[in-house]
Amino acid sequence: MSVLSTSQADNIKDTLQTAIDRDANETIEISQRIWDYAELGYQEFKSSELLQQNAQMAGFSVKSGVADIPTAFVASYGSGSPVIGIMGEFDALPGLSQTVTHEREEHVEGGAGHACGHNLFAAGSWAAAKAIKEQIEGGTLSGTIRFYGTPAEEGGAGKVYMARAGLFEDVDVMLHWHPAGFNDASPRSTNANKGAKFRFHGIPAHAALSPEKGRSALDAVEAMNFMANLMREHVPEATRIHYVITNGGEAPNVVPEFAEVFYYIRHPDFQTVRELFDRLVLTAEAAAMGTETTMEYEVINGSYNILPNEALSRITYNNLIKVGGVSYNAEEQKFAENLYATLYKPNKPLGSQENVEPFIPSAGRASSDVGDVSWLVPTTGLTTACLIPGSYLHTWQAVAAGGSSIAHKGMLNAAKVLAMTAADLLQDPTLIAAAREEWEASRGEDFEYYPLLGEREPPLDYRK
């Protein structure tokens, strides 16, 4: 495959941007329908079906229900190498239903909401894949484009099961993006993460008449929490430990027969997460022993830290610079100002959505199942300003912005950057070779992949 001239490459990128603008209304409609469905992890049946139907209508071959996950799929077009994959997420978060307004107002009472912008993630990634497909179909580019439908990112680790199933083995480069309140394509790592539910079983008794006959499962949970909190002093500084008691008993006058606590362990290195999790299990075992209860635990999720790739990030960043930031019209500016006023200590000013952040490698504190993919395939990503500057994900303000025209502008920008980056890689094999060389050096010669969540089956009911 010969490398195209600069003018030819620029013409392809212009054509890709034009195609994405042409289909903007269709992409926005997909995003809005998924925003409205607001389906939780592994329950995204309508969202997944919508994306698969669009892929089939566009001429992609679609494999459904991959990795034993009903809502996961792979849509492919083209043949041969290179193989470029684009990831798309579509799960929502519980309890964050919100209308598109600057006041707290549920869209569906007690419902879920796209507080992490995965409606945009899915639709924008699909728009990029479709635009690339047209160039392959027309003979301008050669190779294979794949759109991966990846469910349950929010604690369900959908991509990890897909990775374990070998669905990324023949991919040369994986692309992804995420909505944010700013535009950035710098190489960025994340925390690795492992989560589990610890379940304690005791002996019920009347808490007033015969408490000596009982053994409290809640006491065991509290004992575990106490020891875990003491452990915080003796862990690496970058460690994060979170927990929530998901079941503490039924009535105060009954010694609890059952109690459950849900833990997350995070650290920038997945090996350290493994070690810390083993120590956490010791606190659970000790709690059960000390309270004369029994304990079992279920690993719910586990993901590696993202392995950044500067070679790929440079390509993505250059394309983001070409596309630029997001500009508001008068109506959008008013909406943004009203929503901005509700934020707690915003860290960026309004107007910064028009800029692209400088290229600075960094380390994030959140976690993503993209991490596992990045250790199996050279991977790059970006963020675009779909939310108002200074806002945070997993909030009602993120849901409100994510259903607005502000978010649609950021989503279309992301689609253009993804498509342009895929085009660069498809027409210049030296770019992929350089990325792979860096990736292999970062992983190390002795790296062997073993998922943090082990051999467990996908937790398809974890949100039920």
Write the layout of secondary structure elements.
Blueprint: H1 6-22, H2 24-37, H3 45-57, E1 61-64, E2 73-78, E3 83-88, H4 118-137, E4 144-149, H5 158-164, E5 173-180, E6 188-189, E7 192-201, H6 217-231, E8 240-247, E9 258-267, H7 270-291, E10 294-303, H8 310-323, H9 330-340, E11 362-363, H10 370-376, E12 379-385, H11 396-402, H12 405-427, H13 429-443
Parallel strand pairs: 3-4, 3-5, 5-12, 6-11
Antiparallel strand pairs: 1-2, 2-4, 7-9, 7-10, 8-9
Helix pairs in contact: 1-4, 1-12, 2-3, 2-4, 4-12, 6-7, 8-12, 12-13
Protein name: Amidohydrolase
Pfam families: M20_dimer
Domain Peptidase M20 dimerisation: 194-286
Structure description:
Helix 12 (405-427) packs across helix 13 (429-443). Helix content is 40%, strand content 17%. The chain contains 13 helices and twelve strands. The N and C termini lie far apart (50 Å). A six-stranded mixed β-sheet has the order 1-2-4-3-5-12, with helices on both faces. Strands 8-9-7-10 form a four-stranded antiparallel β-sheet. Pfam families: M20_dimer. Residues 194-286 form the Peptidase M20 dimerisation domain. InterPro entries: Amidohydrolase, Aminobenzoyl-glu_utiliz_pB, Bact_exopeptidase_dim_dom, Peptidase_M20/M20A_hydrolases, Peptidase_M20_dimer.
Q: Helicity range of the residues?
A: 25-40%
Named CATH topology of the largest domain: Aminopeptidase
Strand coverage percent: 15-25%
Number of separate structural domains: 2
Any idea what the radius of gyration is? 23 Å
Quick one: overall form? globular
Number of helices: 13
Organism: Thalassobacterium sedimentorum
Pfam families: M20_dimer
InterPro entries: Amidohydrolase, Aminobenzoyl-glu_utiliz_pB, Bact_exopeptidase_dim_dom, Peptidase_M20/M20A_hydrolases, Peptidase_M20_dimer
Protein name: Amidohydrolase
